[in-house]
Amino acid sequence: MSDKILLPNIYFRIAVALLIPLNIYSKSLTFEYNQDFYDINYQIIDGFNYFNLNDLQLAFGFNVSCDSIRHRWIVEYQGKKVVLIPDNPWITINSKLLNMPVAPKVAKDMLWLPIPVLNEVIGYFLSQNIHIEGDKLSTYRIGMRIEKIVIDPGHGGHDSGAVGHKGLKEKDVVLDIAKKVVKLIESELGITCIITRDIDTFISLLERTKIANQCKADLFLSIHCNYASSKERCGTEVYFLSPAKTTWERAVEARENASLKYELPEYRGEVEAILWDMAQTEFLKESNFLAGKLVSLISTSASTYNRGVKQANFFVLRGTYMPACLIEVAFISNTKGEENLRNEDFRAKIATGIVKGVQEFKKWYEEQMNY
Predict the structure, then answer these.
(1) CB atoms within 10 A of CB 308
(2) 30-54 burial: b if 16+ Cβ within 10 Å, else e
């Protein structure tokens, strides 16, 4: 087998077959490299897709050995080494310890790697990551810098989003904040921004995701206002894509996904949903870190209560091939929150906090990419 580094013309062909009516998906894919074909198996463990290390070893030409005494796997390629331990989120890469959001697993006497770990390994050895596009799995060169960001003001047009008790509409608030964010990021950070809508118009959730992918953005930020039946609930929270764990997270998820009622004919089914979920698991670590920076710095800048990092299955984040977060800047259902959101200075402070969060993430991310 050739030892050449993988080039962009490499591609995976993933076969995800829906068996009616059982909704069972096949768990294998075909990888073609240098006119050779390899069967690569994957399985779902604890809701995440794990790939067989033995299959990957053959496909990529890695050297894999198992230290049974110390219960660890060693993966080597062209003088570089990665150490993996089953059920341990800490991996050793380039002699540094990295804490991953999910850990490798042993099943059927073989080691299985979740996409975040797999991408760290491939990224270190080959400067590439896994990428989902339609019904294909491919590799792409890692962007070493944050150079393009998509800013997404939620709702718009006939979809007003949440409405405050005095009539303030979410769609108007978030559009103003988004425009402020774009202006600040471009002027202060020198990063190109694309805004999904710059007027009061309806954009489907699918189209927002498509915009981010087609322009090959390095970050995707969706901006929203929060809502609760209790007028007392207040503060800022930031979400990344992962299954909701609490009743509150599920409630916010349902509300933000409600826009699907305007676009259900565009939704293309369960097979594509599985592929989208696989795509976003690439960026769990990055999205989680970004969410933490955003919620901290927005709360500090605008003096809002820090409600922390949350997770939910937001449709608008699914399928984005980049770190992505949904920001709930404040509660429009709260009397004081609605009053604040009407205030130009408060909106400017929210925008400043978002930009500071992006700046901190950019610094961390680019350091990570350079190991």
Answers:
(1) 14
(2) ebebeeeebebbbeeeeebbbbbbe
The arithmetic mean of pLDDT across residues 316-344, rounded, is 89
**CA torsion sign, 115 to 117 to 118 to 124?**
positive
Supply φ then ψ for residue 42, to 5 degrees. Answer: -140, 160
Give the residue-averaged pLDDT of 262-270. 45
CA distance 234 to 337: 7
Instruction: Say whether pTM exceeds 0.85.
Output: no
* Angle of CA points 140, 277, 350, to nearest 5°: 90
157 has a pLDDT exceeding 90: yes
Q: What share of the chain is helix, strand, coil (3-state, %, to 5)?
A: 35, 30, 30
- Which residue from 300, 308, 303 is spatially nearest to 336, judged by alpha carbons? 303
**What is d(CA 249, CA 247) in angstroms, rounded to the nearest whole number?**
6
Question: Tell me: the pLDDT tens digits for 40-97?
Answer: 787 877 767 788 888 888 888 899 999 888 889 999 999 999 999 999 989 998 888 8
**Residue 197 tokens, joined:** 């809508």
How many Å apart are CA 314 and CA 25, to the nearest integer?
23
Closest by alpha carbon to 237, among 153, 327, 323?
327
For 270, list phi and psi in degrees, rounded to 5.
-70, -35
How does DSSP assign 54-84, residue by residue?
HHHHHHHT-EEEEETTTTEEEEEETTEEEEE
Residue 369 has pLDDT above 70, yes or no: no
